[in-house]
Amino acid sequence: QVQLVESGGGLVQAGGSLRLSCIASRRTVSNHAMAWFRQAPGKEREFVVGISWNPTSTFSADSVKGRFTISSDNVVNTVFLQMNSLKPEDTATYYCALKFGSGIPTISQAYGYWGQGTQVTVSS
Questions:
Q1: What burial class does residue 2 get, using C-beta atoms within 10 Å of its C-beta: 0-12 exposed, 13-18 middle, 19+ buried?
Q2: Which residues contact 9 (CB under 8 A, 6 or more apart)?
Q3: What is the pLDDT of residues 45-95, one digit of tens each?
Q4: Residue 6 and residue 24: Cα distance in Å, rounded?
Q5: How far apart are CA 55 and CA 39, in angstroms?
Q6: Distance CA 17, CA 5 (A)
Q7: Nearest alpha carbon to residue 117 among 101, 86, 91, 96
Q8: Given a cut of 90, is residue 27 above it in pLDDT?
């Protein structure tokens, strides 16, 4: 079983930056994808950005394009979410997720493995 652990959340001023990390407990050699989702109180969990391998690809939600970037360190089995120009609307719990198979779905039900989440709070 794959275990995911997120870190890097915190409190930041609007316009600032944060870098989230997600470490997987083991390597996944088959076709797979990892993604970041977020969920604010009273709102549905929404897709933020994802990355896949074999094939290699990235995809991001329109709301974060140009501000958020996903990257990976394949040697240590880690993905990152670089969050720039943060807005109060970005405040949420951010979750790392993993699925096997090709493609980067935007629905949470497609991902079978989840981290516990890390809180991001952006103040005005």
A1: middle
A2: 18, 20, 94, 118, 119, 120, 121
A3: 999 999 998 778 999 999 999 999 999 987 778 999 999 999 999 999 999
A4: 9
A5: 28
A6: 20
A7: 96
A8: no
Task: Give the residue carrying structure tokens 């391998």.
Answer: 53
* One-letter identity of residue 118: T
Position 88: which residue type? P
Q: How many CB atoms lie within 10 A of CB 81?
A: 26
Contact 9, 94 (CB under 8 A): yes
Extract the tokens encoding 70. Answer: 């996903």
- What pLDDT digit, counting tens, does each position of 89-113 carry? 999 999 999 999 889 999 999 999 9
Where do we find the tokens 């329109």? 62
